[in-house]
Design brief:
Elements lengths: L5 H8 E2 L2 E2 L11 H8 L19 E9 L4 H7 L4 H9 L1 E6 L6 H10 L3 H4 L5 E4 L4 E4 L26 H6 L3 E5 L8 E2 L8 H13 L4 E7 L1 H9 L4 H24 L6 E7 L5 E2 L6 E2 L24 E2 L2 E4 L6 H11 L2 E5 H7 L8 H6 L3 E5 L4 E2 L5 H5 L2 E2 L5 H4 E8 H5 L1
Parallel strand pairs: 3-9, 3-10, 7-8, 7-9, 12-17
Antiparallel strand pairs: 1-2, 4-19, 5-6, 10-19, 11-18, 13-14, 14-16, 15-16
Helix pairs in contact: 8-10, 9-10
């Protein structure tokens, strides 16, 4: 059941063909505060009461985050995956928007800090940081050539503090079942290339956690396969089936680990963003005519053009001051896209209100959000233009995500 109708949220947030983040209420950014509140702590804004008002006396919260499994993917796969229908019967599915950009690096920094992208400053998968004269992938903190940035520390990628020390101070034990550890939590790593390793890692977390506890499990496999194969592919469907089989097993392990005198466990399923399938032949190479944009870009101090900022659905262009207007005119005349000047982005709170100095420094002079295609540099990174399923923009299927909740007891009945 849904206490917030998706059509209501969609209608409220639509701006033409683009769907804007609902930062003020029904947003992914409020999940961390909601989890903390259920366990008796305060780390930031929470979702409206209607999202969790029927859940009382919660001693353990478990969040499964399936990367790239947005509301459109949930609706598309629910007939093939009985577990999704079972979850709907046992609890509720509340639609949310994700943050902008609708991509993992920005969203996961929000998830771990409760800070919006405008605050933490991770503007996309790629970040250009003028203060350190570096351009790099925020995840996994590498330059395009595979080397590690030398003039900025990983701790400075996001201008925000983790929520986990606050949870620990409130007596909440945090366990994470992810391919990589997170400071301030008990790590249970698994091999993302082998989903069979997830079950053992999760079982360890379920048995070792002492209430009040928060267990977070991250599964990136659906997103990874979608980029190459698309969401309307056998490979994507097979990966989604296996992913939710593993989640179903994990919930069984939770039931086995629960003692007779244990309190209520709330199980949540969500996503950092959804996906859209692009048409490869329509994806836009801005290093080719009529754009030829590389010569218009600012450069690092060594003369390297600043290409890597944002992503192919959230392109940040750091331009020579004398070329901003000309590039803007070309892009707006040639693309079915929103091309926003820096001040327009700030005025619209697209990345959230209260922009930090870090964010303002990293924000492009122009931000390009195509309606339904990728926009990137084909001369050096053809791979991005060859990706089929993409995310990062403001298409409703990228922006709308599920926040599904059910008690462990109702799921195990």
């Amino acid at each position: 059941m849904q206490h917030l109708d998706v059509s209501e949220l969609r209608e409220r947030q639509l701006d033409g063909d683009y769907l804007l983040p609902a930062y003020e209420d029904w947003c992914f950014s409020r999940i961390p505060g909601t989890v903390a509140d259920l366990l008796g702590a305060d780390v930031g804004p929470r979702l409206p009461d209607a999202a969790t008002d029927e859940y009382d006396d919660i001693d353990r919260v478990v969040v499964f985050l399936v990367d790239g499994f947005g509301l459109a993917q949930w609706d598309g796969e629910r007939e093939r995956i009985p577990f999704l229908r079972q979850f709907e019967r046992a609890g509720r599915v509340t639609p949310l928007t994700t943050v902008y950009p609708s991509e993992t690096a920005a969203a996961m920094n929000t998830f771990h800090s409760a800070a919006l992208p405008a605050e933490h400053g991770v503007v996309g998968w790629y970040v250009y940081d003028p203060d350190s004269d570096e351009q790099f992938e925020a995840l996994p903190f590498l330059r395009k050539d595979g080397t590690r940035p030398e003039r900025i520390d990983f701790e400075d990628v996001a201008d925000a503090e983790s929520i986990y020390p606050e949870l620990a101070d409130a007596g909440i034990e945090v366990h994470q079942v992810t391919p990589f550890p997170n400071d301030g939590t008990v790590a249970h790593p698994y091999d993302p290339e082998d989903l069979s390793t997830f079950s053992g890692a999760f079982s360890d977390a379920a048995h070792e956690a002492s209430d009040p506890a928060y267990i977070f499990a991250y599964l990136p496999q659906t997103d990874a396969v979608a980029h190459g194969e698309g969401v309307d592919s056998d490979e994507y469907r097979e990966t989604a089936v296996e992913t939710f089989d593993r989640i179903s097993e994990a919930i069984e392990r939770l039931g086995e680990a629960a003692s007779d005198d244990a309190g209520q466990t709330l199980v949540c399923l969500t996503a950092d963003h959804g996906l859209i399938d692009t048409e490869r032949e329509r994806n836009v190479d801005i290093s080719a005519p009529p754009f030829d944009i590389v010569s218009d870009l600012q450069t690092l101090t060594d003369g390297t053009p600043i290409r890597y900022s944002g992503s192919a659905r959230n392109v940040h262009l750091h331009l020579r001051p004398d070329r901003i207007d000309a590039v803007y005119e070309t892009l707006t005349s040639e693309l079915d896209a929103r091309v926003l000047r820096k001040q327009e982005v700030l005025d619209a709170d697209l990345f959230g209100p209260n922009p930090s100095e870090t964010f303002e420094h990293r924000l492009g002079d122009l931000v390009v959000v195509h309606r339904d295609s990728s926009v990137w540099y084909g001369d050096e990174d053809v791979g991005k233009l060859d990706f089929l399923a993409m995310h990062g923009g403001l298409h409703p299927d990228e922006m709308l995500i599920p926040f599904a909740t059910a008690t462990l007891d109702s799921l195990c009945e």
